Amino acid sequence: MTGPEDPADEGTPEGRIAADGDGENPRNDGDGPGGEDAADGDPAPDRPGPDPNYDPEARETGHPIDGNALMIAAAKASVRAGRLPTLLRAADDYLRERVDEYERSYERVDEADGVATYLVPEGHWAEVGEALGLADREADALRRAHEQHLLRVGSRRRRRREFESALDLREAAVVTR
Questions:
Q1: Residue numbers of the chain with a pLDDT score lower than 70
Q2: How many CB atoms lie within 10 A of CB 45?
Q3: Range of the structural domain that residue 78 is part of
């Protein structure tokens, strides 16, 4: 007989973990939330499947924005975090079509791993948002994501203060090349 404090009691979270599998590694028991069905390798039904817009040629996420920059921008923006990657892919497609114009017209402040970062005039993301038919808050989320990416690049390159000062007057645009 098990008491309420016994982990084998399925009424407690600990008991549910123990009852789901061997209890050794509850995240890797092979079934249930957060795992895969060991028999067929399919994702658990409560987890989303792979992103149908995945493009391995454009980085693993389909856009050039650093994952941490994306998380910071999503936290600050009034856009669902799940919507931001879709917006970033659309913006990257738009910007890549114009990369020659960016090279001629704007200052490239960094390029690495097939990603170029430019300083563009204020209002750039409002214009891009309008061209893509986005709401103002969505265009602002794009601006924030690109800005955060630039700041993270600045930290890695020991140029963060320089980039922070530049962002007082301009905006950042990160483009897959």
A1: 1-62
A2: 8
A3: 56-176
